[in-house]
Structure prediction request, 1021 residues.
Amino acid sequence: TTNKKFVQMLSDLVALCLTDLGSKMNRTKFETLVTVHVHQKDLFQEVWKKVKDGKVKDENDFEWLKQTRCYWKQDSDNAVISIADIDFVYSYEYLGCKERLVITALTDRCYVTQSQALGMFFGGAPAGPAGTGKTETTKDMGRTLGVFVVVTNCSDQHRFRDMAKIFKGLCMSGLWGCFDEFNRIELEVLSVVAMQVESICSAKRMALKTFWFPGEVAPIKLVPAVGFFITMNPGYAGRQELPENLKVLFRSVAMMVPNRETIMKVKLASVGYSMMDLLGKKFCILYALCEQQLSKQRHYDFGLRNILSVLRTSGTVKRSEPPDTDEEMIFMRTVRDMNLSKLVADDVPLFRALLKDLFPKVTDPPKKVYTNIEEGTKALIKKNLLWDWDSWMLKVIQLYETSLVRHGFMLVGPTLCGKTEIAQILTTCMTNDGNPHRTAIMNPKAITDSQMYGVKDPVSEEWTPGVFASIWQRYNNRALKYTTWIICDGPVDAIWIENLNTVLDDNKILTLANADRIPMTDNCKIVFEVQDLRNASPATVSRAGIIYVSASDLGWEPIVQAWLLRRPELSAHRSAEVDILKPLFDRWLKSTPPNAGAAVDFFDWNMRNIKKIMEANDSIVIVTVLNILSASLKQCVEENIILAEDAYRRVLCFAVMWGFGGLLEPEERKKLWDKFVEILEDAKHKDAIPPCSEGQTVFEFVPDWTDKARPWKLWQPSEWKPPKKLQFSALLIPTMDSVRAEYLMSIISQHDMTRNPPSFKSTMLVGAPGTAKTSTALMYISQFSQDTMLSKRLNLSSATTPHGFQKTIEAEIERKTGKTFCPPGGKKMTVFIDDASMPIVNLWGDQVTNELTRQLIEMSGFYFLDKDKRGDFKSIEGLQYIGAMGQPGGGKNDIPNRLKSKFLTFNMVLPSTISVDSIFGSIMKQKFSAKAGAKPAVMELSKKLCAATVDVWDKVKRTLLPTPLRFHYIFNMRDLSRVFQGIMECPVDIVTDETTLVALWRHENTRVFADKLCRDQDKLH
Prediction:
């Protein structure tokens, strides 16, 4: 009969959970009643069975004693809670209406161990992987005993004085302290903490009312109810091993594998499901299979936090559907929709197959429809002239769904897959729907941890808040009438993001090193926008909802379509242009190229056959193509003219070849061009092929922008006029390579700044040493008119810090209005960043200096680091950028992918023999001229020197290759110019005849080439 009564009570409670309970607090109350009641029902059945079997004799049996038992003691007029042989007096602290954890075998074991620890005047130390309920169980035990638990998120910024402040507060108030991620504190601080904890333990043992705390001048009060608990993830990145004298003060509990199935069943019952046993079992098996069979991605998490968010959502969905709806269908749909967002494209079919096997009766139910959001998003896409692309649209809805159940979430995906746009579209859509949203964006990697959270002066103890802490304080304010998304747009590592652990879990509180505790309000969400989670610990991944945007979710096509949609907006005649260009994109890039083997389109053929000098995904390539195309056609838009069809074909051919071939060496460019010629011939577009002679490709030609028909013209450097005084190191002689690089730089700098496709008027020159990257950029900058355009050259090195870089930029600008700054005199400024890839790559594989560069280019500014203005954004107008960097690989760094997409990037190749002849030939002609007093025979011979030197240089370069032992065998243009520099420095009147000139030439070659060699056999070579 007792059992029947129990079951009846449970079904009544479950039925009540399905009704409208009026308030959030009422719902929590009933869910807690169900949670506790299920445990009492199971416990009664278990103990009664053991009594029948004769295993339990009386109330002193351990099976009964190990439970948490509540008594009212008449004699002392107190509530007493007993766990095993330890009795606690209830603390009567009002904690509000709180959710209680599902009581499982693991939580029981944890309660017993922790109560024993407190009984012996020690602390408790639950340890185990992320998401097993360590902190929550400690808080739950506090709720059982009516004690308030103060959770502190420990970080490497905590010093022993900060810890002392917290410990003293706990002793004087008698509260419990739970120190989350305790082993992130630095070792030297932990050894002092050991002494502090020991003094509290011994004072509790002696039952003192006051005691001397280390470092205090007067004794402090001690309330005996005080307790401290430390929770740790052993072996994660950025964690310490605790010192022995600290370990002995804590009793550890291993919390490794939570009882998932029990938790699922109880939670399903508490949210109103009647088929809780069956669904709980299926859910448990599904997640076990997902962990085993899906690919191992860093951002996958099928732990307790994920399970609980799915269960909460399934409760909300169940209540919103009619009562007779099939529970299996509702539950399967919820599990499917909440997990698809984080799966990479390749795992989706497998996950769907697993669902089908477990829920065979349910055919694929349609996705839940959010009419307001879907219609609003479509309207915005139309208004912003974007392309409605299904797989990308789905991500917007998935982000919305995640934002409903999680207060912290991550958008993960490669550069240019539309992450920023997803967040912008959704927040704007919700604002238009009457739920105002704003975003505050910062790059946490562009500043140090102490600049992000705050730092205490070691001498004066003065606290300076950090940028993030100031933003957090400003927007976590219930009085604000809008919801703020604080977006951390930068790489994740295991240090900065772990300081947000208490923010991302159910505590929702930011704890800083100065013991400030800033709670998170309901009108704030924290969003992370990252390329990958290779450095995130499982502790972070399990706390945040994840929306993974695969490269294939957007791809290159919608970028082109959106560009074509925007053209008619520029001027009335552009739609005719779109009609010509659209079929060309389809024909040249989308359809399968001839003789392509397994490749399906031109991008695929490229990936299989062409080796780039640095990696760039399809989206970066197509954005480059579109930016060159827009910049080349800007003149037509301004003059409002439409070109002939064949002219458009030539301009597009030029743009496509520089987009795909910009990052290639000459041999690969030849291979690419040969394939593209096949495509053009196959498409019957021969008029787009330039008249190449032997050894020439499209890269030597350009559609003539001065002629309306846009015929091909060969690149020709302008005639070099020698200066009066020849200073060899300062000579800049235009060559074909420098002329075409300057053309690309100038058309991009005159192009408008656009968000879609991203164009920031910036160019990046990549190339091997000695390819005249810096010289070309300086030659381009030297042509500026100082009245409108200023220039600033920055040389980055491995010692350049983000702060140093920020100071350099700040030194060049002046205040315009309020927090907006610009270059002096309201002019524009081109910043030339030389050696952009040199800054050091830190432990986590991030280049922090370039993270600041990205923030500066993308957001046109950075955050103030002055004490009083932390958290304010400093906008900087009128800056354009040119970058130069060596080719990545062979010990040289690459720049972050998300920075690459801000630049138009192309490779500077080594000058061809013709170029070299023209450079040095013109210098020699100038040196040995009749005017300078050279003999005719010497003049005649000097013309041949150039070719001879190039032959020697070419042979040395080809035969004497660098090896690990002789790694300095690198011969580039710089060596070649040194030979001529030596000849130049010799006065003309000494070179009387041909023999002297040849002797001089031989001497210079020996000095430059032979002196670099370290083996005699190489010198004889």
